[in-house]
Amino acid sequence: MLEKYFSAPKTLRRLRSGISGPYIDAFADDLERDGYAWASAVRYLRAAAHLGCFVQRRGGVLADIDCSTLHAFVGHLRRCRCPHFRRAKIAFHARFGVKLFHQRLVGCGICSSESVRDENADPALVTAFLDWFQTHRGAKLPTLRLYARGAAELLQALGDDVGQWTAHAVRNFLLRRASQCGSPTTQKLITSLRAFLRYLNFRGESRDDLALAIPAVAHWRLAKLPRCLSSEEVNRLIVACDGSDPGRLRDRAIVLLLVRLGLRAGDVAQLRLKDIDWNRGTLQVIGKGRFQVRLPLPQDVGDAILRYLERRPKISGTDYVFIRSIAPYRPFTSGDGVSSVVKHALQRARVEVPDKGAHLLRHTAATEMLRNGVPLEQAGLVLRHRSIDMTAYYAKADVALLKQIAQPWPEVNR
Questions:
Q1: Is residue 359 located within the same domain as residue 236?
Q2: Candidates 250, 264, 312, 384; catalytic one
Q3: What is the CATH classification number for the domain harbouring 245?
Q4: Is 359 labeled as catalytic in the residue annotation?
Q5: I need a labelling partner for 165 at 20 to 30 A (CA). Which of 145, 266, 286, 296 fits?
């Protein structure tokens, strides 16, 4: 109810008047249900009323609201002189508030779902490619975004008539893009373009297998040591997650999962309650390519997850283990949220490392297993590597042991 956030009768009458008024109370209930802070909810409710006033002055109705209307409203905020709305203090929050209110209207059937269509949506051919890739390869959202970017750039550069593409044009496109970006970005672009071109050949869209025209870029995967944390840094990182509030309990459980089992960020984000077998002390993980494996659940990791579940915000309709610690309370949409948790934990622990994502802890877990004498094959099973060569990347990480067997160069002794 609106009375939870406003008490003045004059303010309540004003918010419930206008074209937004009939839906303001339901919007307030949604904000309370999703766990928004009182101050944020107040701003969003004012923004919803402001949007109704803006649309009504233009002679429209709520059903007319679409992305262009929201864009025009944002422009209105910069020069707003509407009474009862303080432009300087609500502009940032109003943009997000009207977006939430619009989603509410779409959910009620007031606005058409077509009104939320992304103006920058991928071309139809790219969309079909992503659907196929997700269905047959089980790719996650971050991977799909990466592949969509490369495919869309290629379509924009060479045109929509795929049948007219040539190997020379495809190769020149890649070389031109490679000159504009660094080696890691180029390597990702090569991977995405090859997958897209193989898909086109599979569908019969292209005359030749144009994936063969994509050149390889020299990259020596084993030329560098894997970046990982020391045992002392790992302890500091875990201590930085101490606390009794749900956010810290969640962070501790996530960090322990990553550093003890070497899970990927996406594995943690997609972890469900049904994946944990408490009686047997195991954890089922579905990784890349929908590859399933059941891993042992260490005691400290299980204890951390249980403590978090006891204090986790109560939400219905989901069985995901980890959810956001700020409103709206919902599961992570991808592994990016898990990497953000690790990044902030590293900052609290004051651990300075070049890489601050969740994969740093996967490297750390792999390196620790090998340092403690775990055979390469068993470490590969825990990490779910399909090739032992990938696990061998960590075998050279024990620098102290390598120093004992390293032979001096003759030039150094001179």
A1: yes
A2: 264
A3: 1.10.443.10
A4: yes
A5: 145
